[in-house]
């Protein structure tokens, strides 16, 4: 594997899950693999888990991570081809990516969508520009349309906590005051479609994810019906895809409560807004596995970096 930019870069999800569990048992086993290799982490947006767990993963492989907050700290980067750069951007991605490639053996990028320009977001302008102009492997740390490190984490976590061969997994939309990206929900959906699970999505009308992502997965607009007999409830807000980037529903009845969760496990990528997305009683109970889920971010990232280093 050269790059890890989408969940489709996983050839066999079950073998990846087993490999990640092995790394979790013995995280320092491959400390020599990354010796004298540099991982550059570039953040266009905020992060807690991705920023720390990906550095931790690199350190576990003996790599040297270097981090930059691109927005704010670096020169404004121009992505347009042939642009007359007499505006706010001082440096073109062609130079920026080529220069960073000389300092780093692997580059990891976080770049959220605009949520105003669907075509631009779906073209993955920032991620694909790094892929095109960098000369080293690229890792997606959440792009406009996908968060494959999170989805691999989620697959590992479900595998660890499942009590039956084919658990029922529900992806439930939840309310939020802001317009949020589709990336987490998209990649989670794609990961569940690759796993042996009974997977359904529940969201209000007007909130269906891209048909290209949903495919044959059932979408149920009645949350109560969808949650019936669930083993895992994966909760996430996303803005409307149809009315692109808009908040068209803030109905608090979509919040996950103790009553709704029943015997299921509660999952969320974090950060999560308490008593908006999910009530305290769920997060503060044994139903919630969000902390254990976040721990698996390290081993998902470590597996991805290991595969890239082995291929280099
Ligand atoms: N990386 C995990 C989620 C990141 C982002 N959440 C957020 O922006 C939450 C912001 C807030 O709650 O104000 C998202 O939904 O894609
Ligand atoms: N889940 C996740 O990606 O968290 P951060 O945004 O804090 O990195």
UniProtKB/TrEMBL annotation:
Span of domain Aspartate/ornithine carbamoyltransferase carbamoyl-P binding: 2-160
GO biological process, one term: citrulline biosynthetic process
InterPro entries cross-referenced by the UniProt entry: ArgF'-like, Asp/Orn_carbamoyltranf_P-bd, Asp/Orn_carbamoylTrfase, Asp/Orn_carbamoylTrfase_sf, Asp_carbamoyltransf_Asp/Orn-bd
UniProt-recorded Gene Ontology molecular function terms: amino acid binding; ornithine carbamoyltransferase activity
Chain residues that bind N(2)-succinyl-L-ornithine: 142, 176, 236, 273
Pathway in which the depicted protein is active: Amino-acid biosynthesis; L-arginine biosynthesis
E.C. number: 2.1.3.11
Keyword Transferase: yes
Gene3D superfamilies reported for this sequence: Aspartate/ornithine carbamoyltransferase (3.40.50.1370)
The entry's keywords: Amino-acid biosynthesis, Arginine biosynthesis, Transferase
Catalysed reaction equations from the record: N(2)-succinyl-L-ornithine + carbamoyl phosphate = N(2)-succinyl-L-citrulline + phosphate + H(+)
Residues that coordinate or bind carbamoyl phosphate: 47-50, 75, 110, 147-150, 269-270, 297
DNA-binding is among the record's keywords: no
Aspartate/ornithine carbamoyltransferase Asp/Orn-binding domain mapped to chain residues: 184-305
Top EC group: transferase
Family: Belongs to the aspartate/ornithine carbamoyltransferase superfamily. SOTCase family.
Described function: Catalyzes the transfer of the carbamoyl group from carbamoyl phosphate to the delta-amino group of N(2)-succinyl-L-ornithine to produce N(2)-succinyl-L-citrulline. Is essential for arginine biosynthesis.
Family annotation (HAMAP family): SOTCase
Description of how the protein assembles with itself and partners: Homotrimer.
Name this polypeptide is given: N-succinylornithine carbamoyltransferase
